[in-house]
Amino acid sequence: MPRSVNSVASRARRKKVLARAKGYWGRRKNVWTVAKNTVEKGLLYAYEHRKMKKREYRSLWIARINAASREHGLSYSQFIGKIHAKGIQLNRKVLADLAMNHPQAFAAVVKAVN
């Protein structure tokens, strides 16, 4: 029986990887083995950085809340502790937005917790 290789599927698989490598520099974009390794590593980085993006945003929100709460004489930890004690259901994203874009509303929240 003759050897059967599915060249259609193999070529499609290679084309898919090389299409993802478009825009890379040098051999990374057109040599199969180099492009395959680069694309795989890029996909790993993409997965990790989707998780890291959430951490970075949370730390940005905390920094903004800390700066705004210190203007009102509270540290970040005191402010968050008082918010939880009062049962105010505002998350850090909303609090950071209030601190940046609506300082009067943030001042009202600080007044409510004191």
Description:
By secondary structure, the chain is mainly α. It has a single domain (7-113), classed as c-terminal domain of poly(a) binding protein (Orthogonal Bundle). The chain contains 5 helices and no strands. The protein has helices at 7-20, 32-71, 76-86, 92-101, 103-113. The protein is rod-shaped and about 85 Å long. The mean pLDDT is 96.
The CATH fourth-level homologous superfamily:
Ribosomal protein L20, C-terminal domain
Would you tell me which CATH topology applies?
c-terminal domain of poly(a) binding protein
**How many strands appear in the DSSP assignment?**
0
Strand content: under 5%
Distance between the termini: 85 Å
Q: What is the multimeric organization of the chains shown? A: single chain
Give the overall form: rod-shaped
Q: Unreliable runs, pLDDT <50, ≥5 residues?
A: none
Name of the level-1 CATH class: Mainly Alpha
By DSSP (H or I, 4+ residues per run), the number of helices equals: 5
Nearest-integer average pLDDT: 96
State the share of residues found in helices, binned by percent: over 70%
**Count of individual domains:** 1
Largest sheet: none
Succession of helices and strands: HHHHH
CATH architecture: Orthogonal Bundle
Derived structural class: mainly alpha
Give the radius of gyration.
Answer: 26 Å
